[in-house]
Automatic annotation (TrEMBL):
Cofactor: Fe(2+)
Keywords of this entry: Antibiotic biosynthesis, Iron, Oxidoreductase
Stretches with biased composition (Low complexity): 42-64
Species whose genome carries this gene: Streptomyces ficellus
Region (Disordered): 42-71
Lineage: Bacteria, Bacillati, Actinomycetota, Actinomycetes, Kitasatosporales
TauD/TfdA-like domain: residues covered: 61-312
InterPro entries: AlphaKG_dependent_hydroxylases (IPR050411), TauD-like_sf (IPR042098), TauD/TfdA-like (IPR003819)
GO MF terms, alphabetically ordered: oxidoreductase activity
Single Gene Ontology BP annotation: antibiotic biosynthetic process
Protein name: TauD/TfdA-like domain-containing protein
Amino acid sequence: MVTAEPVAFGGPKAWSRDTARGDDWLIRLPVEWAESLRALTPAGTAPGTGTGAAPASGAGTAPGAVPPPLPSALPARVASRLRDGPGVVVLRGWPLDGRSEAECSALARWFCGHLGTPRPSDTAQGHVIVTARLPAGHPDAAHGPADDRELAFHTDRAGPPGPPRLLGLLCVRQAAHGGESLLASGHTVHDRLLVRNPTALPRLHQDFHFGRGDGFDRVYPVFRRDHHRLRVRYNRHWIGRGHREAAAPLSPADLAALDAFDDVLADPGTAVRIRLRPGDFLLLDNTAVLHGRTAFVDALDPQRRRCLVRVWVD
């Protein structure tokens, strides 16, 4: 495979811990609109007991009763920051008190319907409600988004047709301690590799196996130039597993390139740490921003355990 000579991308998506500003991605919901939504209960029900309504055309799933119309500029403002800005938005102030997890999920999907097409939910596999199922340190805890251990930096893979364009995480409940979201710019990782370890970049612009699914392979490069944009896909665990499943062992050069990527991620100056509060909706460009999570200690009461709603958007 012939790849173009790597070049620095820079731009608003190339941020780091030292250059990122909260004002670049924090957007507060208009107070009057949030209060109107707070006063709204699902049609014919008491708060927290609604089962949701049928999907609204072009807008995901309506959260029970139809919410008041969004301020006209809000979805465009969010979309602009995701597409042309830092690739990260924290939309703060969602009134979730008294709403069930299902209602919070429907509300998140309804808003994401203004940004694209939300993928069908699969609550049986934890694709919508992401919560700690076991106390910290439990020996049976499976490592993943529903686990309480640290989660390494990655972009989401999902299933067919491939990685989603956007990822949304709505915080319903915080962990008792820890559980901060970790964010890293793929553009920053790329541009720092260009300076620190340029020999790693040509390999990272070529294909890796990211695991197999039912009748399909996940094969794509870590970095891909798309006209004037840089697309990033990364998950070290699944790259290793994917190559084992494909009977294509990673070579020393492959491992060196992936280690160089991880070294930049491990630099304390690369990542931004955010502790989401209830009512914060974190939205990411899944083609440009990597995310992870610190370990956490959860409440013993199952009703108070950490809970996020996850939405994938194309």
